[in-house]
Amino acid sequence: EGDADPLYRACFEECQRTGTLKEDSIKHCVVPTDDQPADKAWYAHEPLYLQWKEWNCNSECRYHCMMEREQEREELGLGPVKYHGKWPLKRASVFQEPLSAALSALTLLVQFNGWLSFFLLLSYKLPLRPETHATYYEYTGLWHINALLAMNSWFWCAIYHSCDTAWTEKLYLSSAAAFLGYSLILAILRTSNLRDEASRVMVAAPILAFVTTHILYLNFYELDKGIPNS
């Protein structure tokens, strides 16, 4: 892989250490000068802010060093290689993958329109139970949750394809895993026509446990999407 290239690694380490790459300055790699912090804002030393800066610095350094190495490889007549399991993609303005981001945003809009239509149908066109004012359809709440998880998943998908960083990738994969896991639960409940709470819990509990474990694994152990490196 390209990230094993000594020249790439040297470029990345230099970028992290100095916050510069040749004549360019990396925005998120702010290096203190004269033993004074470069950013004196009150939040500059908060752990979450520092971690966010580190993630963005790493992402920017990876991208610029990758582009630099690919340009050098092209001049030598060599083909592109993967970096950290991904093919090199040149940004369009600030967007990492503009077409994928646009399609994800369009899908999000379609999901929202579908959920809104479902909500309006239930609220204003179908009769409600006189004693509770709830819908007669017993899967209403489950479909609302499914719609919210779907919109959340496509939202982070659009963000991830716009800006590929460690934290956007984790949020994208975590939200996708949550949506897929819940969709499986809903499919089983609806296909089996399970209406009582005990049966629903028996079906949902093991799947929720597996999905939760998988999300924790992706976030805190190894971010492995199962994509081969070659």
UniProtKB/TrEMBL annotation:
Keywords carried by this UniProt record: Golgi apparatus, GPI-anchor biosynthesis, Membrane, Transmembrane, Transmembrane helix
GO CC annotation, single: endoplasmic reticulum membrane
Signal peptide: none
TM region positions: 99-121, 141-159, 171-189, 201-220
Compartment(s) where it occurs, according to its Swiss-Prot or TrEMBL record: Golgi apparatus membrane
One Gene Ontology MF term: hydrolase activity, acting on ester bonds
Membrane topology: Multi-pass membrane protein
InterPro entries given in the database record: Per1-like
Domain of life: Eukaryota
Family to which the UniProt record says this protein belongs: Belongs to the PGAP3 family.
PANTHER family xref list: PER1-RELATED (PTHR13148), POST-GPI ATTACHMENT TO PROTEINS FACTOR 3 (PTHR13148:SF1)
Name of this protein: Post-GPI attachment to proteins factor 3
Organism: Aegilops tauschii subsp. strangulata
Organism lineage string: Eukaryota, Viridiplantae, Streptophyta, Embryophyta, Tracheophyta
